[in-house]
Design brief:
CATH topology of the largest domain: Rossmann fold
Mean pLDDT: 88
Helix content: 40-55%
Low-confidence stretches: 325-336
Bound molecules: guanosine-5'-triphosphate, magnesium ion
Order of helices and strands: EHEHEHHHEHEHEHHHEHEHEHEEHHHH
Number of strands: 11
Strand content: 15-25%
Strand order of the largest sheet: 3-2-1-4-5-6
CATH architecture of the largest domain: 3-Layer(aba) Sandwich
Length: 366
């Protein structure tokens, strides 16, 4: 069973569990809108928040956590938690949850929680969403990775939603469909005839408890083309790209049992990557072409994680640099590469305007 926290989190959890999820929100209005077996209202100090939620302020979500502390920490054990990183409620409540998990000495495997986050697309969404996301990734998420007390962490991005103008409901369906490709791996093993390898429920559950980022994707596998090339071309566009695989698993479904040895070239690929995967090869007579479902577990340091996120929000950062330049100098007098120079400094540091200013001073433009 999954747990949805905040607006986006609640909708996604409800969709995955077909209305059987538990949802948590400070806004009573948002709780009413979503189907769930259990609805938990976290109480914020201000009455405005009870009506309108945290209004993009994670501090309000953090404060509201106190009212559900014991319930929430119990509820998430062994479950999947969904939240967006941009708003105030999901971000605030999940920040405290992650911090609590990070402070625990160790957590038993059956109590590990998998997290699925939705990050905003900075080129279209508000800069508050972006700033909240960066603090969330740099802070609570990074701490949780270091502590190793979570299960897999999955980062969905709203990039494709905005770029292709996909309605929210349809996009949420895409997210859940893609997640189900991964989650249904052990079920398929029970339904279809096994040809080679095996991933049973225990193996799969253990895999989900590893404290790494999980990138999964599914595509038709052509054994005449190198597997690595196909994998890269078919990375899941709803997720941040993976980096440096630590562990992996794959399920290969074949329309024809004669093709069984085709999985060896997938194993070759992973052995070159130094990650020996768990795998399962099944006969699926309903398919026309071989279908492979792959999951890659990888780790990121805080800075790299934010860089991954910034890679999908480059233009936004650039426009922020431009804004600070506009504020302090007359752009017409500047040389073109000034923005680049300022950007380099921005990349290497956290603070913004002061650094930009000091660079401008250094190169004699102020
Ligand atoms: N994919 C997807 N993204 C959503 C959905 N609802 C909101 N978002 C995104 O989530 C971010 C906003 O977070 P919400 O989940 O609405 O906020 P919240 O956690 O309820 O917090 P507050 O409303 O500020 O109290 C933005 O980046 C939105 O684009 C949804 O149904 N699907
Ligand atoms: Mg909300």
């Amino acid at each position: 069973m999954s747990v949805g926290v905040g607006g986006a989190g609640s909708k996604l959890a409800s969709l995955l569990d077909e209305g059987q999820a538990t949802i948590v929100d400070v806004s009573g209005v948002e709780l009413e809108r979503v189907d769930a077996v259990s609805k938990i209202r976290a109480v914020a100090h201000s009455s405005k928040a009870q009506l309108k939620g945290s209004r993009k302020d994670p501090q309000i979500g953090r404060e509201a956590f106190q009212s559900i502390k014991n319930k929430a920490l119990d509820l998430i054990k062994g479950q999947t938690v969904f939240c967006s990183t941009g708003g105030g409620t999901g971000n605030g409540l999940c920040s405290v949850i992650l911090e609590h998990l990070s402070a625990i000495e160790s957590i038993s495997i059956t109590e590990k929680t998998m997290f699925a986050f939705v990050v905003p697309y900075a080129q279209r969404e508000s800069s508050d969403f972006v700033d909240n996301t960066i603090s969330f990734l740099e802070g609570p998420v990074s701490k949780a990775i270091d502590a190793g007390n979570t299960g897999n962490l999955i980062i969905f991005s709203n990039k494709v939603k905005f770029e292709r103008r996909i309605p929210e409901k349809a996009y949420n369906n895409m997210i859940i469909e893609s997640l189900n490709h991964f989650l249904s791996i052990p079920t398929k093993g029970e339904e279809l005839k096994q040809l080679d390898g095996n991933i049973d429920y225990e193996d799969f559950c253990l895999y989900k408890t590893k404290p790494y980022f999980n990138h999964f994707c599914q595509f038709n596998y052509n054994q005449d083309i190198p597997f690595g090339k196909q994998l890269k071309a078919n990375y899941n566009e709803l997720l941040l790209d993976p980096e440096g695989t630590i562990e992996a698993l794959f399920l290969l479904e074949l329309p024809n049992p004669d093709l069984t040895n085709s999985f060896y070239s997938i194993l070759d690929f992973f052995s070159e990557e130094d990650a020996s995967p768990m795998y399962s090869v099944l006969y699926n007579p309903n398919l026309k072409k071989p279908l492979v479902t792959v999951s890659l577990l990888y780790s990121r340091k805080p800075l790299e994680l934010v860089e991954d996120y910034n890679a999908i929000s480059g233009k936004h950062k650039r426009s922020r640099v431009k804004k600070s330049l506009d504020q302090y100098v007359t752009l017409s007098k500047l040389e073109v590469d000034l923005t680049n120079e300022a950007e380099k400094v921005l990349k290497a540091s956290d603070s913004e305007n002061d650094e930009v200013l000091s660079v401008l001073k250094r190169i004699g433009k102020l």
